[in-house]
Structures are given as structure tokens and as C-alpha cells.
Design a protein that fits this description.
This protein is α/β, with parallel strands linked by helices. The chain has 2 domains: 2-186, Growth Hormone, Chain: A (Up-down Bundle), CATH 1.20.1250.20; 199-310, no CATH class. Helices cover 69% and strands 9% of the residues. It is built from 12 helices and 6 strands. The chain has helices at 2-25, 28-39, 43-71, 73-93, 97-114, 117-127, 131-142, 145-184, 188-196, 207-229, 277-283, 287-295; strands at residues 243-246, 249-254, 257-260, 269-272, 299-303, 306-310. A 6-stranded mixed sheet has the order 1-2-3-5-6-4. Helix 2 crosses helix 3 (43-71) and helix 4 runs antiparallel to helix 6. The longest helix has 40 residues, at 145-184. The protein is elongated and about 75 Å long. The two termini are 26 Å apart.
Length: 311
């Protein structure tokens, strides 16, 4: 029940941010002619600003991929919001094509870090395979952006002009989207800790599953797992070891720490703290090791001949 509440809260935050982001960058559909007259530009050149925006978003996507992996979607979206606000300010100050298109380059950079793909990555970080329904709901809500912001842009431009409208939208980036992303979205460390404490697969023997099957059944299944994995574990009638298998490694729970079956005390142990730069520099290029870190809590693992303690 709690994970459902969490994803609903995150979905609400992301939906508000996406509606604002999509709605504000669509202002040219309403004020395009005003901008063309004010800047003495052809209307087709004015609407080329939107093309610059989407080309910029596409060009930044592969570059930001590493940032999403290393820092998580939340931090990237915060950074993108901080770039989007100056983009609208620069747009409001534009008096010619150079400033005008430079503003759209900034907005394209911000859009690549905050819109659509970024939101989907965030939902996937939080909900994993269950993110599909959340993404579907987000797509429906985001479709309302023009319905909300076209009349809003029309009203604001009639009251304070298109330049004032851009300043209002810059303020929305800083006063609405930024606090929502900073305080309404879970931090990367919270997500990894939650993954480490998540319930194990059905094949594991932990918690309520052990209770429901009874200690005898649990011991039999543990011994069966040991034979299948080819690991020789100490089995006694008095103690039933809890066992997990992740990324081809078998782990036994010892004093609340998952220990790799191949670990030996003779190996030098390197400690990694989840969320640290050292942690991400190692696990980013090792998806198997990353899966172990995300599925288990405090863990000792032997990977490529090196022993790591991840907590």
C-alpha cells in the first residue's frame, strides 16, 4: 500500500511539472505574431524558435544519458529547471534574432533535462516495471498542457505583453517547478535504500514466506537452492540459512549482511556507500553489480576478483 501512495505522490509532482513545462514552451502558438512584430522578424523565423527547441532537446539527449545514470533523474530535472528560468528571462530581453534563438537553445537544453524522457526515467527509477501505468497516466495529463496554458498565455500577454509573460513563466520555473522537484521527489539514496530493503523474489526464503511455509519447508527449500547453485553451505537441523541469488551470485544472510558465497576473509574489502561518486563510478559500468546493490541491503560481494562491501 505504501509504494502505491509513493508513486501517486511522485506522479502528481511530475504531472504538474510536465504540464507547466510543456505549456510554457508552447507560448509561440499564442504570441508568435506579437513577437514577430516586436522583433521585426518574419513569422516563419519566429516559429523556427520551436524547431531550435526540439532539435536542442534531441541533441542533448545522448549527452544527458550519463548524467541520468550517475546522478538520477531528480538532480538532472532540478538542474534543467535552473536553466529554463534564465532561458525565459533571455527570451523576454531579446531584441533581435541572436538573443531570440539563444534563448531557445537554453530552453531546449532545459527541456531535454526536464520534459518527457526525464519524467519517464524518474518514474522508472521509482516504480521499475510497474512504471508503465504511471507513464500512461502522465501522458494523458500532459496532453492538457495546451488546454490550460493557451488561454493563460493569452490572458497574460493581453495584461503585460509577451515579454512580461516570459518573466512570469521564468518565475513559475523557480517558484513552482524547482521546489516541487527539490522537495517533492525522493532522493537517489532513498531509492537505493528502499530497493535494498525490498521484499525478495518468491524463490527466496525470508520474512512472512518463511512463516507461512513453516521452518521445515523453508529449510528444505534452502537446501535445494544450495544443491542447484553448486555451493557447499553448512546445513544443520538447528539453523536454516536465508539465501538469495542475484546476478549469478549466491548470498547468505549473516548478521543482517548478505555475504557472497565465494567471499573469503583473505580478500581485501573495499567499502562503497550508496549514492557516493566512488559507488557510481564502479556500478555504472557493471549492471550486474548494480542489480546486486539495488536488490540487497548491506552486502558483501566479490566482483571481478575484488571484494566490495556496499551499504
Amino acid at each position: 500500500m505504501q509504494p502505491n501512495k509513493k508513486i501517486v505522490g511522485v506522479l502528481l509532482v511530475v504531472a504538474i511539472g510536465q504540464v507547466i513545462g510543456r505549456g510554457t514552451i508552447g507560448l509561440l502558438a499564442v504570441v508568435g505574431r506579437q513577437v514577430a512584430g516586436d522583433l521585426h522578424m518574419d513569422i516563419s523565423a519566429v516559429f523556427a524558435g520551436s524547431s531550435v527547441l526540439y532539435v536542442g532537446m534531441g541533441l542533448w539527449a545522448p549527452i544527458l544519458a550519463k548524467a541520468f545514470m550517475r546522478f538520477g533523474a531528480r538532480r538532472v530535472m532540478i538542474a534543467g529547471t535552473l536553466i529554463g528560468a534564465p532561458g525565459f528571462v533571455l527570451l523576454s530581453l531579446a531584441h533581435g534574432p541572436i538573443q531570440y534563438f539563444a534563448a531557445w537553445v537554453l530552453l531546449g537544453t532545459a527541456g531535454s533535462a526536464t520534459l518527457t524522457t526525464a519524467a519517464y526515467i524518474l518514474l522508472n527509477e521509482i516504480a521499475g516495471r510497474n512504471a508503465r501505468s504511471a507513464i500512461g497516466a502522465l501522458m494523458l495529463v500532459t496532453g492538457l498542457s495546451s488546454s490550460i496554458f493557451w488561454p493563460t498565455t493569452s490572458f497574460l500577454s493581453n495584461v503585460m505583453g509577451w515579454r512580461g509573460t516570459c518573466l512570469v513563466y521564468a518565475g513559475m520555473m523557480l517558484l513552482v517547478c524547482l521546489p516541487l522537484y527539490a522537495f517533492g521527489l525522493p532522493r537517489r539514496t532513498e531509492l537505493t535504500d528502499a530497493a535494498g530493503m525490498a521484499a525478495p523474489p518468491k524463490s527466496g526464503i525470508l520474512g512472512s514466506e518463511t512463516k507461512s511455509k513453516g521452518p521445515r519447508r523453508a529449510q528444505e527449500q534452502s537446501e535445494s537452492e544450495g544443491r542447484n547453485s553448486g555451493t557447499a553451505g553448512a546445513r544443520t537441523s538447528e539453523v536454516s540459512q536465508e539465501t538469495r541469488k542475484v546476478s549469478g551470485h549466491t548470498f547468505h544472510l549473516q548478521n543482517r549482511t548478505w555475504v557472497d558465497a565465494v567471499y573469503s576473509s583473505s580478500l581485501k574489502l573495499t567499502t562503497l556507500t550508496r549514492g557516493s561518486e566512488k559507488y557510481w563510478s564502479i556500478v555504472n559500468d557493471e549492471p550486474g553489480l548494480r542489480a546486486i546493490a539495488e536488490q540487497l541491503g548491506d552486502v558483501i560481494v566479490v566482483w571481478n576478483g575484488k571484494a566490495y562491501r556496499i551499504h
